[in-house]
């Protein structure tokens, strides 16, 4: 019993009471309030209509304004769906049925007004008599309207009409009117209602009550119909004692049949429980004083309310358990649904890890509707959603059994509880296309088997790509919230898998995928090692996440605000096996290094006095130039801010070195000396190394290196040419080597992909820069030492009286050497 007291209420009246699956009751009250929206002609009083939300323990959870007070024939109808809200209907004004749709309760136990409209009468000659609103199995509403003709009554004319129309779930557009009943009988008056849904998928039923005179009711009609408006059956219920019984109300019973409540002996209320064939199954006794009643379908209980006569204005709710006319059996005692025979696996079963399918066996043949089957990890983590279009019929049992495929990532944690929710209208009854009632949350529980596993220390990394819309939304959120957006995305991914948040992290760096248009962002996700044996190890985690991402429209990834940004077509790209991807390049590099070393050893053996190390210098210069060129072609556009600097640091040094090389060769060739003789013998060699010197003018030094005692490497450069090559090489450090190293370093800090080319380019640039700096320092030291020696020799020769001549800037010492 539940007792509620409210001292502020004036002219207290309980119109109706409803229940929802959150354990609350909605009560509609008329309250005295000086700020009411509507005033009725009553001295010094204003009224408005207030909804009060109560807990089952009687606690007031919230109060809210419903609308104007005291309209005609007002009703509140609660949707059968938990998220369906309720519908308020009343006659206002001009005897039209006005409706207002409210949402379900939010976190503050407050409903929101969603829409409103009017149910119109189609025939202009019809006069509105009354209406009755009822719920649909799929969460929508229906309304039956009774009219009487204003034309003169004759034996051949239709004088009474009953219509029905529907307001679908989540819609403010009603269907057309369907005719349920027409009659030319000259009834004194007629009533329609109540109209109720049948939970077994047979449709709906409305009662019509024709009166012969003011009080006499001989029988009632029970009209059965479906959502398409077709009438399937009309039953005439004859009462056992019509003179001592008057119809009051009727209610559909969840476990089969319906209750007809009447008044006998003017004051005593009695209830008869009818089965589906229209026969009386049982009689229900009511305590005196009950003035309001309703059925809580899922619990198969009958609710009754009564009022006390004292001044505290209290009322009491009493419940009665109803018998089950459908023979459920032991399985259905725990699994209340009149349409389902059984499920595989059964309720409270233990299943294996990564269980692959679910099967629902219905009593009647079905086809698929618009509802879903959802799998949750207890208490509230969505693992998978499957629509009716994705399910299949069992090939053996046919249209009564439905099988749902389960992703390998769904039941992925050992010794964990899951539950399955089946939406109403997941399937429809094949015979009449009526949606069948589903399975509520926290009923069909399953538990995965226990499994121990070793804790591994493996880790992994991989790339994620955001969709086009996700990229723009991520940029906007990141500009406002910074790294917290990245962290929130990582947490939602961890919750969707699900694993501990500490195992999933996303680096605070991202870049544009160059092969997409419009541009899409790439993010790098790191996966930590296994720390809980109930969680999947790294390989299973990667596979689970790939399945979740591929099937994101059916998983929690598409439901969350951040993970909805992910591009499911890109999936998850883990770290590449560098050997598998670049083994040919690595082998080629090793072969080149070995070949260079062999050439150097051969040259060193042939002529130890030659500048043989120039071989390594040229190899380093050429490979560095090749990687610089490849980097500009392949990677410079990955980050727009680095594109132009990459082009500049390639083109300007290339132009500079080409100019210096041509100038040195042409100026040296214009002199009448040994270089001119060499150039005439080896013009092709000069052309080849002039081209190679575009990478670095120091390549020209190989022409005078005497490598291998080969004449083609015996050109003679003047001191002026040697000096020009040296200072040009020093300039290259400033305009090429240092800027390129900085660009490669900045790229490496921003890069999150696994392309080895930028890394090799960075290493090559670093080695080239280090080699160039050290080489130039050694050359400067050597040149300074050479000049000091030359100056000392000249001073000694002058002291000895040896003549010194200056010809074209060169100091010539006339020294005679006597050989014995």
From TrEMBL:
The keyword Transmembrane applies. It comes from the Eukaryota. Keywords: Membrane, Transmembrane, Transmembrane helix. The chain crosses the membrane at residues 582-601, 613-633, 645-665, 685-704, 759-778. The keyword Transmembrane applies. This is 1107_t:CDS:1. It comes from Ambispora leptoticha.
